[in-house]
Every structure is written in C-alpha cells, then in structure tokens.
Write a structure and sequence with these properties.
Elements (H helix, E strand, L loop, with lengths): L2 H24 L5 H6 L6 H28 L4 H28 L5 H5 L5 H38 L3 H49 L2 H9 L5 H4 L7 H13 L8 H8 L4 H32 L9 H9 L2 H33 L9 H23 L4 H24 L6 H20 L7 H22 L1
Helix pairs in contact: 1-7, 1-14, 3-7, 3-11, 3-12, 3-14, 4-10, 4-12, 6-7, 6-14, 6-15, 6-16, 6-17, 7-12, 7-13, 7-14, 7-15, 10-18, 11-14, 12-13, 13-14, 14-15, 16-17, 16-18, 17-18
Length: 469
Amino acid sequence: MARADIVIGVLVLYQAILLGIGLWASRRTADGKDFFLAGRQLGPVVASISYASSASSAWTLLGLSGAAFAAGASALWVALGSISSMIVAWWWIAPRLMGFSRANDNLTLTDFLAHGARGGGRRAIVYLSSLIIVFCFVFYVAAQFQGAGNMFSSTFHISLGASVAIGALVIMIYTLLGGFWAVSITDTLQGLLMAVTAIVLPLAALFAVGGPAGLAEALGDAANAEWGSLTAANGGWFAVGVVIGGLGIGIGTWGQPHLLVRFMALRDEQSLRQARWIVLCWYLVVYLGMCLLGLTGNLLFPELTDPENVFFAATESLLPPILGAILLAAVLSAIMSTADSQLLVAASVIAHDLGLGHLGRGSLLLVSRLMILALVLAAVAVALLLPESIFNRVLFAWIALGSAFGPLVFLRLAGFEAPALAALLSMGTGFSLAVLFYLMPNTPGDILERLAPFACAFAVLLLARRLLR
C-alpha cells in the first residue's frame, strides 16, 4: 500500500472519531453553561491535556521545531519561557480564577474582565475586549488552517485552498455539534497524540545523527558557532535580548481567553491539583521534544528551504509509513486542538458577551453556532489571501491577547479592583503596542515585541488606577 493511501486511511479514521465525539457531546449540551464551560465539570486529565494542546497548536509542532532548525540552541529559551509561564498560570492564576468565576457566575473571560463595572463603563469593556478577541482569533485560527494546508500539500501535493477547506470543515462540524464538551474531549485525544509524537519523532532523529554525542559535537562545532550557541553567538546586550526575548514569549499565556476558560470549567480543587502535574509533564515532553527535533533536523536535512517543514521531512525519512501516517495526524491534532477552542471562545464573545444570543429561547446556542460558521469563513479567507509564517502569525495574536488582558487578570485576581477607564486604557495600550511592534523591524530576540506591550499595559493600569480612585 502506498504511503499516501495509508495516511488517507489514518486521517479518515481519525476524523470519524472526532465527529463521533461531537455527536456524543451534542447530547450533553442543553444550555449556554454546557456549551461554553461543559457545566463546570472538567476533570484533571481532560482539563490539563486539553489546556496543553490548545496552548500549543501547530505553532509548537511546526513553528517551534522550525525555529530550532533555523536559530539553533537559542530556541530553547522559547521553550523554557512557555514552560515557566504555564507554571505561573496553573499554580497562581488557576485557583483564583476558578473560585472567582464560580462565585460570580462568570461564563466567559469578558464576564470576568467587566466584573464590577456598571453602565457605560461595563459596555465599553465588553465591546473593546470582544473586538480584540475576535480580531486576534481570526488571525490565530488562520494560522492553524495554514498548518493544515502545509500538511496536506506536503503529503498529497494538493492545493493550499483545498487543504485549508478540508481542515476547516471538520473542525467546524464537531465544534458546532458539541460545544465545549466536544472541544475538551477531542483536545484531550489530540493532546495525547501530540505527546506520543514529541517522544517518537525526536528520538528517531536523535538516533539518526549519532545519539546525544553526535548532537553535542555538532553544537560545539566552530563552524556552527551561531547555531550552536544559546545566545546565537551574541554578547552583551544582544545576548540579554535573545535570552529575555525567548523567555518573554510565555507572558502571553496569562491573557489567552481559550486557556483561561479551562480554569473556569474545572470541576473542583482536587481536579486542579492533579491537573497541574499532568500539564507540567506534557509541556516538558512536547516543547523540549520539538526543540530536539529542530536541532537534529538541521543536521539531517540541511537542504530544507522551509524550516517549518522539518517535521514532515523527518516523518517521511525516518519512520515506517504507518507510524508516519499516525504522526501526521498529530499535526492535524495540533491544529484542531487550538482552532476549535478559539472558535468557541470567539463565538461566546459574540453570542453571550455582546448579547446577540439572548434574543429568545434557544437563541444562544443558535447564534453561537452561526458565529462559528462566520469565523471559520473569515479565517479561511485570511489564510488564503494574507500569507504569513505560522510562527509569526501565532506570535502576533498571542502577544496581542496576552498584553491586552494579562495585566487586568493579574490585578483582579490579586484582589484589587480597577475603574472601568483604567481597564480600557490598559487593554487599548497592550493591544495597540502589540500591533505597532509587530509592524516594526525586529530587535535582538524580538524583546520589544514580546515584553514591551505587556509591561506598558501593566504600568498604564497601575497609574490610571491610582489617578482615578
């Protein structure tokens, strides 16, 4: 049997399983709380793995491995930044947000951000946060569809347009059917597949380059000084920029609506305590595994023109067809596990937060599903008409969301309130600076793009809060 036939068979089976989960979950979805938060009944395994897979996406399997391929050892700072920020999220933010959202019956992050505001101030927070979420998620989801396009194009040699349409259709169907239940269960399945991939493929590549000794020798080779250096062979402030810029990429974790909603949906404190350790193990395996794949892939496939295709090159060259087919399904898993969560959150913003789903009995679910359809179409259009690398597109949306919402999340969970105007100024500052620095030329480690928007938004929030009290 040809390799392409095996891949098709595995993917068809995999998609059938996902759609089956969507049908099952549709029976458990009776109202808005079920559709958006799975009735606040997520257990430790589902909450942790679905969080991890939603946070990682094609950005990790394709983008991070590609970054390690191109930049070398300095990409490890990106992995460490993501891991450390996840620890802050699960050990500090999660218990506080879970308790706060239950006590105040918050269904969405926008509910939480606007809590305590009244009248025009509340409406302004809801409108601004909703606009930022929908705008960023269209570009974020477009990056996931682009990852699907790369996979299908590399495997079957079909057009990008057809590839994007296939992936978008499946994601849309099971998200429409089951809401948060379907998203969480499918994300868990996909997260487990991603973890297996992050063990098998990097180890196969490491063995192919001669084991740890072979990799260490290549990293220490004087001819590869920049690629083998943790600071990209820079010294002084440039080295500091590379390190802090890499670590700073994780700051966006603290303001991602599709991740924070997992904390709001947790079943109880015991589930939270167990989920923390599960997600930590997953992060270590997947993020460090993809860095290892990029480093070893550079030695195995030096002629590769697109670094973000190192995953596909390694899969095709190093693994038997059936195993390679399963791992290619893992790329689709990474794409779907983020895209579905973001579609659901964006739909909740329009249907619940903006009030379009409160027009009559049953209208919340209907409007939410219509919004998912509209968002899929918008993301497909962006993926096809505005091409950009997966890494850069995801990084922009990640930083914009984290900078807009992260400071206010921290302040509120620390027990401090902020006037509506202070919250608006902070969100506007974080989002606007993220857009500005994205459009500016790169700095060493992209330190301005990754740190300045969040830091400035936090400073504006604290100053405005003091002046407006």
